[in-house]
């Protein structure tokens, strides 16, 4: 795909077809407030580019039947979600429906060269399976702050080897298509906005609790990235004076006290000092513990694990309560690996927010788990690159 | 003034003339990306409405000299800033320059009827002085959350008698002109954006520390009011577990520990229990203490007062540090009555933010005092109503 919309009207039409699927010319006209003749001109130009194709006659609305149009069925986007301990790669059509999805464990600290070798192999595998002849664009998420216009990670605490690596440029060259790069949490927010629990939301927060903790901020339907691309970096908000040492160099940061990594450390300590027989048995057999072990032990009624989850939920809930007072969102979405901790976690988060924030801010505020799980990030990646490609060149 | 711009182009032209003053047609054309003929049509229509008037010939740029246009010099806006303990009323021209300004002490708890009597008397005084024949619109700030579309205060903790009072409708009737109502902190942010320290900023925070504490949030040049109008309500973020009782019903809120009101209470306690001879003398002579007494005593070297300011600055700084991590602003402006505490306060705030937030978010982050002082709110009020009037009807 080399064509791009020539103006804002064409861009609007492309996004409408992406978000609502095939549409008749008449229906499109209802939504864009263009004169009938101007609409016809813009749709014809999009048909000329090949981005849009005719799709038969629409059902009659009385009078002459309108023609259907849709985005070219051959368009393919690649969504890549690089987490701290795993990578997800998916291929979508132009409506951002996932056609194929592969996930693999990996360690982001191996650095960009090793990780991208793996990502490219996964993309090749999806292509070889016949789902795509090539990719028209790719959207990549990484677990750290990104200088967005250039697509370069900046001083990411949990992925030090990536600082300044030209992700966008390098992958664009390897894949032979346009690439956009963003923080993984922003991708999750965009995914939940496109196809998940935030479909109707204009102003919402998406809190991702995985190895670290971050927050996607959506204002008026658009991701707010901040002045230097670090907006949403709530993992390093201080929750305890003279608290635990954090990887960022400070003490008492939220993610030093609660996150997938912190929970694994706490669980191993509880196993070793005899506070949980369940965790001790799991440590004995696996050699290490993760948040998933805590979730399983809690589900089996282990009191120590329930306490760990509640305490972490309380701390995180206090931070979210502050953000709710500050930002007054219409929705808070909780996502990431730690959502395996389920309703014990959610109950603790909700209790803190509903107790601490003013009633005016929480009166109609839903606090819910994300709907898409591991497909949120890759869907968000496809959305990111499609937003870019469906903008005037 | 009854005319409103007929379309987005005219609205854009009116705002350009407001923000940049008289302009030649040629210069306007450089900024709005309209064809020369379309620009001529839109400017002519604005001349027909009377909102814009001709203003002689522009300086030559080579070739035919262009005509100057400007906003009608007779336009008058009223800016009203209702604080907890004082009210400011000013009249501006269409470029939002202050032509006259009156301030009076008052207590917002007297309720809307008594306060508006005072406000209307102040407006009448400005009119009687010959500064305005009438008002073309008024922008009002109140110290609490506002349901913005209707202009109605909602559950405001420090002004309980105002809950649900139809401020916009009532004042619009009394003044005989369109009225917009907003939180006082948002007005301060708009004022500093229009004519103060935030003139170049697109994404910034404006923290007002007065009787209470609040924060104006500007995203992409626009005030973010949140889903129910309570965005920026940072005074009720919890800074201490089981801390002091707050007027909102919770414990440990920021403004229960540091604000003009909290500082006055702390100062009276220090005077009574012998920790500050300076404060004791002032309490003896005045019968009560305010933040201004703490500022004066600190300036005279009183160690207890310096400690009070530092401790409050540290607490507030920790909250601002969290917001900087979350929002990644390009600028933080500190305003409100407590800025009389000056550089001791600013140093404490800066220390916390620069120490706790990630370097990526603070690298180029200025934290500065507002420039406009008591005129920020009234300038913001005039800006608020002009934004409304200079929008397509």
TrEMBL record, chains A, B:
InterPro entries: ATPase_NBD, ROK, ROK_cs, WH-like_DNA-bd_sf, WH_DNA-bd_sf
Domain of life: Bacteria
Family matches, as SUPFAM superfamilies: Actin-like ATPase domain (SSF53067), Winged helix' DNA-binding domain (SSF46785)
Family annotation (Gene3D superfamilies): 3.30.420.40, Winged helix-like DNA-binding domain superfamily/Winged helix DNA-binding domain (1.10.10.10)
Family: Belongs to the ROK (NagC/XylR) family.
The name this protein goes by in its record: ROK family transcriptional regulator
